[in-house]
Amino acid sequence: MMFDLVWLIPTFPLAGVLLNGLLGRRIEDKNKSLVHWIACGAVGLSFLVTLALFVKLLGLPSDKRLYDFTWFTWIAAGDFKVSVGYQIDPLSMFMCMFVTGVGFLIHVYSIGYMWHDEGRYYRYFTYLNLFMFSMITLILADNFLLMFLGWEGVGVCSYLLISFWFTDVANAIAGKKAFITNRVGDFFFAVGMLLLLTQLGGHGVWSLKFADVFANAYMLSPKLITVICLLFFLGCTAKSAQIPLYIWLPDAMAGPTPVSALIHAATMVTAGVYFVARCNVLYSMSTFAMGVVAVVGALTALLAATIALTQNDIKKVLAYSTVSQLGYMFLGLGVGAFAAGLFHVLTHSFFKALLFMCSGCVIHAMSGEQDMRKMGGLRHKMPITFYTMVIGTLAIVGFPGLSGFFSKDEILWKAFSGEQGSSILWLMGVLAAAMTAFYMFRLIFMTFFNECRASEEVQKHIHEAPKTMTVPLIVLSVLSIIGGYIGVPESLGGSNLVEHFLDPVIGLGHDKLFQSAGGPPLMHNISEVAVHHHAVEAEYWLMLIAVGIVFGGILLAYLMYMKKRSLPETLASGNPSFYRLLLNKWYVDEIYEKMVINPLRSISVFLWKGIDVVVIDGLVNSTAKFFMNCGVISKASQSGYVQRYAVSFLVGVFVLVAYYIYIR
Amino acid sequence: MSDYQSTYLTLSAILFAIGTLGVIIRKDAIVVFLSIEIMLGAVNLAFIAFSRANQSAEGIFMVMCVMAVAGAEAAIGLGIFVFLYRKTGTINIDKFNLLKW
């Protein structure tokens, strides 16, 4: 069976990790380019295997597209068994395709970007390969625990890569913040997993395998399902940067730009979206949890977009835009449009990776400058970067015909018309879209148009990036244009291939898939999802409104940053408090500092100085002191003088003799 | 028990007490050593007395052993004293309290 080759997909990057991780220093000394040949080759091979399996999967009828490959038993404890196994189905292959594909492009791009980083080149590629290994494990895992392993693995790699240039304290702090914020989420995730395990175990199902869990979830009470779903979702809010745990992602931009593109835009941060989609059986059982997902997603999309309006750091703008787009994805999931959410994951990975890599080229050219106020006029000096970035921008704002348009429109439409949808959710989405258009074009205008505001010294060095960097840009920009056409909605004359492809793993399709694989029916208590023969006319109108608003955003950006360039300052000084509120990111970091970090710190200090030092140390030390004093007292008997020993000997003899004479 | 026997035993006890006191009180290591010899002598005397009273040779046999051991002990002990004296210039046993932690 060809699907048995699936273990190769994670193994190639792992081999890259071992080679570069253990021998990298020597390899780099001998032949620096061998390092990236190993790393890129490993990911490239993974991609080829994925592609082969994907083609094979497409060749099967849609209700046969499920294969479970068990590699070996990982944990066996009584009835509970976890194996390292990979599940091949449309969802995992869909994710794996773009993760390995985009991952490969970003590996190639990294060659140019990191080439000048002396002595740490191999380390960078080791981390990057380790990330690919973890991410592939996360996606392909057929059980919760193995997925969690990958989940934690990507967290570690994210930490290592954010603080890659750790000699700068700010980078180290950013890495720490990302890691700790993720730990908060992971804690809830783990609790959710344990709850699921023990509760299902109570019904005699000691398994964390997706198939088993979903098949038996009907035995759990709806309340319990809601709790589990919410706990899982909290984990996802950390990994996928949603309210309330999104705060780490903007800081994560301290890492090298390809890392931002790969981990913090295209792949890792979509893990939460993937997970919710993977667990759509569970989420479908809880209307409340779905509602929470949708509302959190919409709020995040809106909040992050407002913050992005005023940021001046080119990567920060993109970071908040990522948070905002992730909000879109969750909005889609929350209203039950799992396929639409995943479609947006795909298109977003194309254009956001593209945007980040373009910004990387810009930063590279500007000798490390990230402040857009010091850029400008780069259009002629870096034409490839300029054109590809414009394509990426048009894709993200949802310009009709580019990839972002189709996926975003699908989500907005479902937010309006779906089971859980409402016009308020739609309105939030559209507002966020308008702001996206504004801040993205603000970025383009500030960076590429008008006069260059950089210093003479920097201006002299501005140059187009090397081939290894521009080729991935071109590939991704092509994907950003055509990537959307696999999911053209039916109302626009398309056939929505993505949705049909993913059907077998979503909702009722899931049921058919498992049953045809000999499994039990899954959907015991889910009502048949009503198939909306939605009014096509309404969809056109909504689409038109959304597009109109997007154009409004672009026009506003044009006015403010091209025509009347004094306008932003006038506006900012006109509403100083509001401007500062946005510039300072709604003071969320400060609020967390006050509300969470400081109380935690005070508690920690109390526990340290009060409990630990006084009570615990006191207890231990006084015990030790007691015995020491006993020793000091009894030590006197051991004087070392022979004669004193003789006396005690004598006394002992007297006592013994007296005992035998008088008492016995 | 005949009179002379109790006399012997009394003498033995007195000698033993004198030896014990000497061991405990005297500071000069050689004198302490001599006191131990006195104690051994007292023991030997008691052995002889019992041997005679019981008309058996066992006591005499023990005395032979004790004398042999005492001789060996004296040889070793005096060797140690010579060594100590070379090392420290004194054999006052109040100066030696190494037998402790």
In short:
With 664 residues, chain A is mainly alpha-helical. Chain A is built from 27 helices and 2 strands.
By oligomeric state, this entry counts as: heterodimer
What's the alpha carbon Rg of chain B, rounded to whole Å? Answer: 17 Å
- CATH uppermost class of chain B: Mainly Alpha
Helix run count of chain A: 27
How many β-strands of chain B, per DSSP? 0
Biggest chain contact: A-B, 11 and 13 residues
Which fold does the CATH topology of chain B refer to?
Helix Hairpins
Q: What is the CATH architecture annotation of chain B?
A: Orthogonal Bundle
pLDDT < 50 runs, ≥5 residues of chain A: 523-532
Reported for the largest beta sheet of chain B, the result is: none
- Mean of all residue-level pLDDT scores of chain B: 89
Q: How much of the sequence of chain A is in beta strands?
A: under 5%
Detailed description of the structure:
The complex is a heterodimer of chains A (664) and B (101). With 664 residues, chain A is mostly helical. In chain A, 72% of the residues lie in helices and 3% in strands. Chain A is globular. Among the domains of chain A are: 167-549, no CATH class; 588-663, no CATH class. The N and C termini of chain A lie far apart (91 Å). In chain A, helix 15 runs antiparallel to helix 17. A two-stranded antiparallel sheet of chain A has the order 1-2. Chain B has 101 residues and is an all-alpha fold. Helix content of chain B is 79%, strand content 0%. Chain B has helices spanning 3-25, 29-54, 58-88. In chain B, helix 1 runs antiparallel to helix 2 and helix 2 (29-54) packs antiparallel against helix 3. Chain B is elongated. The N and C termini of chain B lie far apart (50 Å). The chains are: A mainly alpha (664), B mainly alpha (101). Chains A and B meet through helix 27 of A and helix 1 of B.
